[in-house]
Write a structure and sequence with these properties.
This protein has 3 domains: 134 residues, HAD superfamily/HAD-like (Rossmann fold, 3-Layer(aba) Sandwich); 82 residues; 148 residues, dinb family like domain (Four Helix Bundle (Hemerythrin (Met), subunit A)), CATH 1.20.120. It is 52% helix and 9% strand. It is built from 14 helices and 10 strands. The strands form 3 sheets. It has a 5-stranded parallel β-sheet with strand order 5-4-1-6-7, sandwiched between helices. Strands 8-9-10 form a 3-stranded mixed β-sheet. It has a two-stranded antiparallel sheet with strand order 2-3. It is globular, with a radius of gyration of 22 Å.
């Protein structure tokens, strides 16, 4: 069942010719920073963007932090000062780029009718720009800049992946607790919006800024969309995206939150992360390794985890526990990287699910992540 619609922004809800806009953007950066600081950051930005989008980077680092780290040597100033310089640019110069863009004819109506049909709405724009720039581009598209009007707007501050890496979509799923086949991605770009989203199991619709009328023929049919089967190529991006969602929820959490129990009978944030860590090392990875090594093994369901009153913490530092989970997950990712097509289809018998495969159990790991990411989000007050 479809629960959410993800919308690309540029050339989907906002007319924004990419080549012209990038030329204008980089030209403005050069003029602004040469006059203010005597440096031209545009060559470094041209190399930083592919690094952010490549996936060959630390999933613990946000896109903006990676961007600023790349730029810091150019300015030879502390990263916080570089951040302030760019915020000034987005306040003073970025608005002058609006004439390059064109308001979407029915963008506001598309969002309103999607919301009215009961679907979550995500502005799934490539998160290479900070929040201040995204608010402006939403206004240019004829949409409210109030992020509270959407279930999520992907910005450089919050995201740890970018298009066309499918893990970008995996991170959104992890943040919202959605399954891939519960989502429709609407966009214009064959690689960024369609191939990347489809690779992770998300339904897609092609729409550019000149085709808004076509969306209203698709909207009533979302209830007819069928579930999709998991594929081997969808597993790693979902797992990686869940890591990004986890660090995004916890990186700035005050230390005293880690041990709190806002709801009776619920784990604390520390206990949620410790459960993910323990399960990764003792259940998820050993289960996959066993299916790969044995012929049709019987997999028993592990005993229920302890309740909040009997769950010993795995660390005294919540962020250290998150990093330990990252390290454990990387081991599991390394294991599946070496699997053959035949390995993914190896069979097993599960005490609850019955006949299953290694692929199905790997997909269950992603679902288990999202279950507890949503629990964590609810515990710290970020989800309904």
């Amino acid at each position: 069942m479809i629960k959410a619609v993800f919308f690309d922004l540029d050339d989907t809800l906002l007319g924004n010719p990419t080549d012209s806009f990038i030329r204008g953007y980089l030209g403005s950066l050069t003029t602004y920073f040469m006059a203010r600081c005597g440096v031209d950051p545009s060559p470094t930005i041209r190399t930083a963007i592919p690094l952010i989008a490549s996936g060959k980077r630390d999933a613990y680092t946000s896109n903006l932090d990676l961007f600023l780290t790349q730029l810091q040597p150019v300015f030879d100033r502390p990263v916080d000062e570089v951040r302030d310089l760019f915020e000034a640019f987005y306040a003073e110069e970025y608005p002058k780029l609006q004439p390059i863009t064109q308001r979407g004819a029915r963008s506001a109506e598309i969002i309103d009718r999607t919301r009215g049909a009961g679907y979550k709405v995500v502005i799934a724009t490539n998160p290479l720009y900070p929040e201040s720039a995204l608010r402006q581009r939403l206004m240019w598209a004829g949409l409210t800049p109030d992020f509270a009007a959407y279930d999520l707007v992907t910005t450089a501050e919050m995201m740890h992946f970018a298009k066309p890496n499918p893990a970008y979509y995996g991170e959104i799923l992890g943040r919202l607790g959605l399954e891939p086949d519960e989502v429709v991605m609407v966009g214009d770009h064959p690689l960024n919006d369609h191939a990347a989203a489809s690779a992770i199991g998300i339904h897609t619709i092609t729409m550019d800024v000149t085709q808004h009328d076509s969306y209203f023929t698709h909207l009533p049919r979302f209830g007819d969309y069928l579930p999709t089967d998991p594929t081997p190529q969808a597993i790693a991006p979902q797992w990686m995206g869940n890591l990004g969602a986890l660090v995004g929820q916890t990186i700035d959490m005050p230390a005293h939150f880690w041990g709190q129990h806002p709801f009776d009978g619920e784990w604390s944030p520390m206990q949620v992360v410790c459960h993910l860590l323990e399960h990764e090392a003792t259940v998820h990875r050993p289960r996959l390794e066993r299916i790969q090594a044995e012929d049709n093994p019987f997999i028993a369901e592990p005993p229920p985890p302890p309740g909040p009153d009997n769950f010993p913490p795995c660390d005294t530092d919540g962020n250290a526990a998150v990093r330990a989970f990252f390290a454990a997950r990387k081991q599991t990712l390394a294991f599946i990287k070496g699997l053959s097509d035949e390995d993914w289809q190896r069979s097993a018998r599960h005490s609850i699910f019955g006949p299953t495969t290694l692929l199905e159990m790997a997909h269950f790991t992603a679902q288990h992540d999202r279950l507890h990411l949503r629990q964590l989000c609810q515990t710290i007050g970020g989800c309904e």
